[in-house]
């Protein structure tokens, strides 16, 4: 049962507003004026509403594709993509046990050279299928990984998932890739989980695509119901918008262990969709659950599944929304419910939940650094930055490190310590993944972020074919470019020495 407490009035107002504008019906009718008069990046971004049904007609093709991989001796499937093109495959890889006799699914969405170097040892080229996933077909990380893969893997072990007509689609045909899956172009990256972007990796790993789609399909009628009592997406969207309006914009996700990594996907959906024009939901994913006294009065807790430790939070006056968890069997429903909620939250907040107006800035700054050469950035003492943290802020650790290194756990400890000491929300994003997820919110959302950037050293580098720089240079340029962009927005952002940040727990 939801316990909305201090945000109940604001949630009621959001529900009234959405009902008054006939929001649910207009959304399903693909009426872009629900969000803005200009149809650009709205009218052509609503294909996710019905994609589960459309994809059901492709289930046979996907099954044939998956069966053939196993028969051809493929043991590893590596998805190369960023943000919306890779995070749902990451959820699949981490939520489902490998299917016996089928390839193991893995995702690469980092420019950390240590991981890139390891990957080619851990996934022998003769047994590996590489999937290049990019809506635009132009994302530098994805194209760099593809270039590395093509050094060792023959084109008939490479697949492209992209929009029709992109340069990646042209390459798939010209270079004889094993398959090209052209995605419906009216679906934005972060809403693409139930399209080819999620389903091709699922089929390759031998997962039950039909079940995933059926779970979403079964949820659709309720999600189209204008009655909030019947529509969990409408209730959730109003709760998110009401929380933002009531100053509780730190939406803290507490997720069922089996599908824990859905938090990563939800983070990018919420942050990139709502974090703009100075407002938005600040999703807090993967933060350890604590006692009431470590939280400020800027939180809304959203729990998926049953958890110990929530009742004391509600009793202490923190608003709580509880959603059932269907585990892996309910993933399709969960995805569609949150997409509906996010789209309606955007309508209630008066923003377009389908664009990402600030993402290009950091990309441009990275290119500038690559062209002009990087600079030596002297680390700022952590204490100097933490001195600036106050109530209502959030501290975002942005770590350009090897995602599989133990340092990530140590950073989680540092994160918890900062949360407990300052009673502020904390996030931990791995670079450059977060640039395609929370990066939009950091720059365009509420200016309450305090950004701690750490950049791991690279004992080895990996060259990127056909580029004048390797992964290490790219990683450092991405970090520097983002730091410049955050500072250009007047935000509190600093490079911190990794050792200094880890010291915080001692
Ligand atoms: O699928 P693409 O075009 O490679 O883009 C990857 C990601 O980059 C972003 O455009 C923004 O960083 C996301 O919205 C998107 O999911």
From TrEMBL:
<dbReference type="InterPro" id="IPR001672">
    <property type="entry name" value="G6P_Isomerase"/>
</dbReference>
<keyword id="KW-0413">Isomerase</keyword>
<dbReference type="InterPro" id="IPR046348">
    <property type="entry name" value="SIS_dom_sf"/>
</dbReference>
<dbReference type="Pfam" id="PF00342">
    <property type="entry name" value="PGI"/>
</dbReference>
<comment type="similarity">
    <text>Belongs to the GPI family.</text>
</comment>
<keyword id="KW-0312">Gluconeogenesis</keyword>
<dbReference type="GO" id="GO:0051156">
    <property type="term" value="P:glucose 6-phosphate metabolic process"/>
</dbReference>
<dbReference type="GO" id="GO:0006096">
    <property type="term" value="P:glycolytic process"/>
</dbReference>
<dbReference type="GO" id="GO:0004347">
    <property type="term" value="F:glucose-6-phosphate isomerase activity"/>
</dbReference>
<keyword id="KW-0324">Glycolysis</keyword>
<dbReference type="GO" id="GO:0006094">
    <property type="term" value="P:gluconeogenesis"/>
</dbReference>
<dbReference type="GO" id="GO:0005829">
    <property type="term" value="C:cytosol"/>
</dbReference>
<comment type="pathway">
    <text>Carbohydrate degradation; glycolysis; D-glyceraldehyde 3-phosphate and glycerone phosphate from D-glucose: step 2/4.</text>
</comment>
<dbReference type="GO" id="GO:0048029">
    <property type="term" value="F:monosaccharide binding"/>
</dbReference>
<dbReference type="GO" id="GO:0097367">
    <property type="term" value="F:carbohydrate derivative binding"/>
</dbReference>
<protein>
    <recommendedName>
        <fullName>Glucose-6-phosphate isomerase</fullName>
        <ecNumber>5.3.1.9</ecNumber>
    </recommendedName>
</protein>
